[in-house]
């Protein structure tokens, strides 16, 4: 029901925004406004232009055309200083912390009252920083350099930094992508409180559940333009999905009650694996050509288990057997030599060479294959064709730039797809994918799973770790980890989201 009463005037109105990068039109005449007291969701496929819009608001990019009105007055946001003056705060898609500063010092960088040069001198945790840290559930120490924190903890610090000062507008570019459900809820809760206090909030997210639950307004971007704009009463998941991908998406149910890998021999067996506090007693069997899902909440020990299998950490207890022989990798090198590959969850931070081309980033794992016995010239051509092929298969949006452009020029989600594609090209015996669809748009997710299934059918055994339990329905079998312990193994029609949740929280 709409009423005519006191609708606050928009804080920001953007009209006809244009931005091009070479041949790429990142924004093509976007009209959008942000209203105090509202959470405005921006969604769209990877490369649709969401981050570009936010970066123009932040003064990090200058638009090529269009006008920005702030409080009804035309304004130019020349640089990030201007945005800060205006009371705009940002959580960007990339981590940008000062690694030698402590958590508290980084948080206080968000507070415009503090001069950065004096920051290094303070010790301890100022009350403002403590308050915001408590609000989003930070329990780790804020008195050590952020370089010693996990990537996940660094994200929480960067969110706290955006929340520490009073602001009129808060723009969050995928703030929850690296968070578990509970932490994501906390962050969204803070966003809701701020909106209730009259802040205009922008939320970019690929998690449509949280968008439909949290937002008062949703704008869908497609190819740099607005393809759908909805007010509170019109928001529907179905309409959003259609506007993102441009066609109807059939909701995927469980496709393989009897998986193709049924009865295949065990390739990798792990029993009672223990490591540190987070991994206590994990066991699983991985069959040849199988898609094995590992479900669990953040902190359940999933990544820790993957790291032990990949030789990045050593098990303190328990045994593993690979193809029937004892397997105790002492390094990542051992694991790779045993034909085990691992795609980490923080792919962009850990795995990309940002100034190198898309093609080089895709082929870093397969150079030896491309080069074998060929002259350099053929391998370049081969590399390009193979890169184009893989980009097409995974729906990597290259726009005008092709596979020779630096990967840093791709949107966040498209960068993620490149790292996945790199490993899908290798066909190892065992492939471990940690959160393979994080930051990847809804259309490309099914492409990625289709490709994973393809390589499984060729004999690769795949372990998928995902917080998106719905995606684990693609798996042949799912084990559930809780507090570092395998608490359930789900097969057949027991592979349901409800069963996974039930065991996670049991
Ligand atoms: N610095 C740059 N140089 C060249 N092209 C760029 C640059 N930044 C962005 N682009 C291009 O602009 C387009 C829009 O990118 P943008 O980052 O806004 O997408 P997005 O909607 O945020 O996607 P994602 O969901 O993957 O984060 C993409 O085609 C991207 O490759
Ligand atoms: Mg983005």
Provide a short characterization of the protein structure.
34% of the residues lie in helices and 24% in strands. The protein is an alpha/beta fold and 506 residues long.
Can you list the ligands bound to this structure? Answer: adenosine-5'-triphosphate, magnesium ion
Query: How can the largest sheet be summarized?
Result: 6 strands, mixed
Strand percentage lies at 15-25%
Distance, first to last CA: 41 Å
Task: For the largest sheet, list the strands in their spatial order.
Answer: 6-7-8-3-9-10
Structural class comes to alpha/beta
- Number of E-state strands: 20
Shape category = globular
CATH architecture of the largest domain: 3-Layer(aba) Sandwich
List segments where confidence is low: pLDDT < 50 over at least 5 consecutive residues.
370-377
In CATH terms, the superfamily of the largest domain is P-loop containing nucleotide triphosphate hydrolases
The helical percent reads: 25-40%
Structure description:
This protein is of the alpha/beta class. The protein has 2 domains: 12-245, Rossmann fold, CATH 3.40.50.300; 266-505, P-loop containing nucleotide triphosphate hydrolases (Rossmann fold, 3-Layer(aba) Sandwich), CATH 3.40.50.300. It contains 19 helices and 20 strands. It has helices spanning 50-57, 80-85, 103-109, 116-119, 127-135, 151-163, 181-196, 208-214, 237-245, 302-309, 332-337, 347-351, 358-363, 367-371, 376-394, 412-424, 442-457, 469-472, 497-505; strands spanning 12-21, 24-34, 39-44, 65-70, 73-75, 88-91, 169-173, 200-204, 217-222, 225-231, 266-275, 279-287, 291-295, 317-322, 325-326, 340-343, 430-434, 461-465, 477-482, 485-490. The strands form 4 sheets. The chain has a 6-stranded mixed sheet with strand order 6-7-8-3-9-10, with helices on both faces. The protein has a 6-stranded mixed sheet with strand order 16-17-18-13-19-20, sandwiched between helices. A 4-stranded antiparallel sheet has the order 2-1-4-5, with no helix packed on it. Helix 17 links the parallel strand 17 and strand 18. Helix 3 packs parallel to helix 6 (151-163). The longest helix has 19 residues, at 376-394. The radius of gyration is 23 Å and the shape is globular. Magnesium ion is lined by residues 50-51, 93, 173, 411-412.
């Amino acid at each position: 029901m709409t009423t005519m009463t006191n609708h606050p005037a928009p804080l920001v109105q953007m009209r006809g925004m244009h931005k091009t990068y070479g041949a790429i039109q990142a924004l093509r005449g976007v009209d959008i406004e942000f209203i105090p007291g509202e959470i405005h969701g921006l969604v769209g496929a990877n490369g649709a232009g969401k981050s570009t819009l936010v970066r123009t608001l932040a003064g990090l990019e200058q638009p090529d055309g269009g006008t920005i009105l702030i409080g009804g007055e035309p304004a130019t946001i020349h640089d990030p200083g201007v945005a800060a003056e205006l009371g705009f705060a940002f959580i960007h898609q990339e981590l940008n912390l000062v690694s030698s500063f402590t958590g508290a010092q980084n948080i206080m960088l968000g507070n415009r009252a503090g001069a950065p040069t004096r920051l290094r001198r303070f010790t301890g945790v100022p009350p403002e920083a403590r308050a915001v840290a408590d609000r989003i559930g930070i329990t780790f120490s804020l008195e050590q350099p952020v370089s010693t924190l996990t990537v996940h903890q660094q994200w929480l610090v960067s969110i706290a930094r955006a929340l520490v000062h009073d602001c009129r507008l808060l723009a969050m570019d995928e703030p929850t992508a690296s968070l578990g459900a509970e932490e994501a809820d906390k962050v969204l809760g803070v966003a809701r409180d701020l909106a209730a206090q009259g802040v205009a909030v922008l939320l970019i997210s690929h998690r449509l559940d949280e968008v439909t639950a949290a937002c008062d307004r949703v704008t869908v971007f497609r190819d740099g333009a607005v393809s759908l704009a909805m007010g509170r009463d019109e928001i529907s998941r179905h309409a959003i999905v259609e506007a993102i991908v441009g066609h109807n998406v059939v909701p995927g149910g469980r496709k393989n009650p009897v998986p193709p890998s049924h009865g295949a021999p065990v390739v990798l067996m792990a029993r009672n694996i223990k490591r540190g506090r987070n991994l206590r007693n994990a066991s699983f069997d991985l069959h040849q050509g199988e898609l094995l899902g590992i479900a669990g909440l953040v902190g359940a020990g999933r990544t820790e288990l993957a790291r032990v299998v990949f030789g990045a950490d050593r098990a303190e207890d328990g045994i593993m057997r690979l193809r029937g022989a004892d397997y105790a990798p002492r390094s990542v090198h051992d694991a790779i030599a045993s034909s085990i590959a691992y795609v980490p969850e923080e792919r962009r931070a850990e795995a990309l060479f940002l100034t190198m081309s898309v093609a080089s980033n895709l082929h870093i794992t397969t150079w030896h294959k491309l080069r074998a016995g060929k002259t350099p010239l053929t391998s370049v051509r081969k590399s390009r064709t193979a890169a184009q092929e893989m980009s097409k298969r995974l729906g990597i949006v290259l726009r005008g730039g092709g596979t020779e452009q630096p990967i840093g020029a791709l949107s966040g989600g498209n960068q993620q797809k490149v790292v996945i594609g790199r490993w899908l090209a290798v066909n190892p015996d065992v492939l471990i994918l940690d959160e393979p669809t994080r930051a990847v748009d809804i259309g490309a997710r099914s492409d990625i799973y289709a490709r994973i299934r393809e390589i499984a059918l060729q004999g690769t055994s795949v372990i998928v770790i995902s917080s998106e339990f719905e995606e684990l329905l693609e798996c042949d079998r799912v084990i559930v980890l809780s507090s570092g312990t395998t608490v359930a193994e789900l097969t057949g029609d027991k592979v349901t989201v409800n069963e996974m949740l039930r065991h996670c929280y049991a």
